[in-house]
Design brief:
The protein has seven helices and two strands; from the N terminus they run ααααβαααβ. By secondary structure, the protein is mainly alpha-helical. The protein has one domain (about 35-145).
């Protein structure tokens, strides 16, 4: 047997070179600062801000009736889809300095924005994160949330 180190395939969790990687590195993003992968705390904070803004709108329109519960989800879905598709930002993301960007650099667009939003509304896909902090909804839409 040779004294050479055993070469492992790229992405092998036992690969020492892989241990020093950081979220977004494989996409050419910096480790810190603008355009780096956004942390889970900022993403969750933006989600909470967006949800409560939509809740306030629904409450103002429906005055706390049962229709307001469904309206909150509808407003949240519409806000997330349209603003992400057009700008990459929602209200919460803008306030916390993060945005959604496509991996290939093109705008998110209505199709991928809709796919990402539908999966986000299913709740579980955003909870399944990879090492780049991308949920299943981000992987399906070929997006990543970055600091702006």
């Amino acid at each position: 047997m040779s004294d050479q180190a055993v070469r492992r395939p790229a992405g092998d969790p036992r690969d020492p070179a892989d241990a020093e990687s950081y979220p977004g590195q494989k996409f050419g993003l910096p480790e810190e600062g603008p355009r780096s992968a956004a942390g889970v705390g900022r993403r969750l904070g933006a989600l909470v801000i967006d949800w409560f803004a939509c809740l306030a709108i629904a409450y103002a329109i429906f005055h706390g009736s049962r229709d307001g519960q469904l309206a909150t989800t509808a407003f949240f879905g519409a806000e997330t889809w349209l603003l992400t598709a057009l700008t990459g930002y929602t209200l919460g993301k803008r306030l916390l300095g993060i945005r959604v960007a496509r991996i290939d650099g093109v705008p998110v667009g209505f199709g991928m924005g809709l796919l990402r939003t539908v999966l986000l509304l299913l709740v579980v896909p955003p909870l399944v994160l990879d090492k780049d902090l991308r949920g299943l909804h981000d992987r399906a839409a070929r997006t990543i949330v970055i600091r702006s």
